[in-house]
Amino acid sequence: MVRLWALAVFFGFAIWFVTLVVSQSAARARSERTHRPWPRWGWWLREEARGEPGTMHFVQRSELTGLRDAYSSAPLDPAQPLLRCGSCLAMYHATSVHELDRANGGRCVVCGSTDLAAVHLADG
To answer: What is the pLDDT of residue 49?
Structure first.
């Protein structure tokens, strides 16, 4: 019985420690002035691969109000081609994604995923 209790306490501390390390590393990358979208729950379970050719995100034009490019922090311009991360839903201009391909291995700056796909704007 004592061994079972000790094992339960050990795993409890291990889970607490991992949670503490992950939350502190995420907090360091955060800025008080800039909103950065967070990955959805389960981001560590997903396979990080580009979406299938032709994959597209459908977004209402009104949803872009106030949003900024996750790489350059420029306001999103609906007249330019846009891309979106499939994991954390961060939005990018196509020029930012070209720079990410060159400098960051094509990975999202927020969550590190490579699932970046085109955005189709719906009026409404």
So the answer is: 43
Token output for 21 = 């390390």
Over the stretch 32-88, which tens digit does the pLDDT of each residue have? 555 556 555 554 544 444 444 446 788 888 888 889 999 999 999 999 999 998 888
The sheet with strand 82-85 has its strands ordered as 56-60, 116-122, 82-85, 91-93
**Tokens coding 96:** 């930012």
Q: Is the pTM of this model over 0.70?
A: no
How far does Cα 90 stand from its chain's mean position? Answer: 6
Q: Which domain holds residue 12?
A: 1-30
**CATH code: domain of residue 114:** 3.30.40
Q: What is the largest CA-CA distance in the chain?
A: 66
**6, 12, 40, 84, 101 from 90: Cα distances, Å:** 43, 33, 11, 6, 16
Examine the domain organization and report whether 57 and 111 are in the same domain.
yes
Query: Among candidates 45, 50, 83, which has minimal Cα distance to 67?
Result: 83
Token readout for 32 is 């008080």
| Cβ pair 98, 69 in contact under 8 A | no
